[in-house]
Specification:
about 400 residues; 9 strands; TIM Barrel; about 40% helix
Length: about 400
């Protein structure tokens, strides 16, 4: 690509023209000054639409169950019954942790759990039977409702594939929900691929869940996982699939670009992990493809040495950061201290603000995007600008964390 063509493409993006897939692929390989120009255009587009405020969600991470029927090549979260660390939380355990989080200023309760463990584990079926349920998603509804009614904090469930009925019911007790698309490539499910033994990672099934959430107007988080063996063509196609869903339904409130991390105990332990340039390049393309209005985030704990540099690539959000619980998906990667996160964000020229698990642009259209019974819970926790209270959180004594 010539420098003249590059600059013309970037100017057109800044002027509101949609970036074509072929041009995005060309931009994915630029180097040197052209790479710097790519990042600069993404950052300028962010500034024009989002200003210089960077948000994060003070959250408590609830791993409701780490039993799962999928065996992904990069996962340390999933366990089997009897395996060390295998656990399904009781309602009392959930509420104890959430109440402690509320005292620390958290507003989001992130529920993460394995996909359909009852399909392969009789132990999970028995656990559910004792509580009057047949499916894990029914137990999730019970837990979300208890959190809402007992604590007033806002559940955000991320349970994997869901059918329309599941989404309809969970919408009653979640102000927002999420499902990572990860990638649209069916190739990654072939033998030897990261999703070879993970039926719930089938791209068409995940796109179906995302589309159903769109039809139901559920504020939704999705994103891609980079560095698991996908090509740049597949990575870019995944971003365009998200853009198409957003154009059709308008309910995708944020997109995560998450980088794969090597762990010694995973099947992919010898697989190379993406470096800063790959992540920054992907973030910049995500901004240009998804536009200035999209909220784009990169998890700061997954690249602790340089996460503040991602602000140069057009992000405007750090995602959920917990002052109470660890990242159970990446337990080797501690969250940054909130004071450090604020300082590094400020040093880059931005102001850090807490937000709720639902973004201000969806709160302002509450009658369209929030179940009526949840609106009072949201209004109690947000300020006039739709963000969270400034300074309403502090660092806890981490020795008190029990999960």
């Amino acid at each position: 690509m010539t420098t003249r063509r590059l600059l013309r493409l970037l100017k057109e993006c800044l002027d509101g023209r949609a970036l074509a897939p072929g041009d995005a692929l060309l931009l994915s390989s630029v180097e040197g000054d052209e790479f710097t120009a790519l990042l600069g255009a993404a950052a300028e587009l962010r500034d024009r639409h989002k200003g210089r405020i960077v948000t994060f969600s003070p959250k408590v991470f609830i791993p409701l169950t780490n039993l799962c029927r999928d065996f992904c090549g990069y996962c340390t979260f999933r366990k089997a019954p009897g395996e060390e660390g295998a656990r399904t939380l009781s309602p009392d355990e959930v509420l104890e942790t959430v109440r402690r989080a509320g005292m620390m200023g958290c507003t989001e309760v992130l529920f993460s759990l394995g996909d359909k463990p009852e399909a392969i584990y009789p132990e999970m079926r028995e656990f559910l039977r004792q509580r009057g349920h047949r499916r894990t998603l029914e137990y999730l509804y019970e837990a979300c409702r208890a959190v809402l009614e007992e604590t007033g904090l806002l559940p955000h469930a991320n349970p994997g594939l869901m059918a329309r009925g599941d989404l309809e019911r969970l919408r009653q007790v979640n102000v927002s929900m999420g499902l990572m698309l990860e990638n649209v490539s069916e190739r990654l499910m072939e033998p030897g691929g990261p999703h070879a033994d993970a039926p719930d990672k089938k791209p068409s099934a995940r796109l179906r869940t995302l589309a159903e959430a769109g039809r139901l107007r559920i504020p939704f988080t999705t994103g891609i996982l980079i560095g698991i063996g996908e090509t740049w063509e597949e990575r870019i196609a995944s971003l365009y699939a998200i853009a198409e869903l957003q154009q059709r339904y308008g309910n995708i409130q944020e997109v995560i670009v998450q980088n794969f991390r090597v762990k010694p105990e995973i099947p992919m332990r010898d697989h190379p992990q993406p470096d800063y340039d790959q992540e920054a390049r992907t973030l910049a393309l995500a901004r240009l493809i998804l536009g200035g209005d999209m909220n784009i985030q990169a998890p700061p704990n997954l690249t602790p040495e340089c996460y503040d540099r991602y602000l140069n690539a057009g992000i405007n959000d750090w995602g959920g950061v917990s002052p109470v619980t660890r990242d159970f998906i990446n337990p080797e990667a501690p969250w940054p201290e909130l004071v450090e996160l604020a300082d590094r964000t400020a040093a880059a020229g931005f102001t850090l603000r807490p937000r709720l698990p639902i973004y201000p642009e969806y709160i302002s259209r509450a009658e369209r995007f929030i179940a009526p019974e949840l609106i009072p819970y949201v209004e109690r926790l947000c300020g006039e600008d739709g963000l969270g209270a400034v300074g309403g959180y502090h660092e806890p004594d981490r020795s008190d964390v029990r999960l």
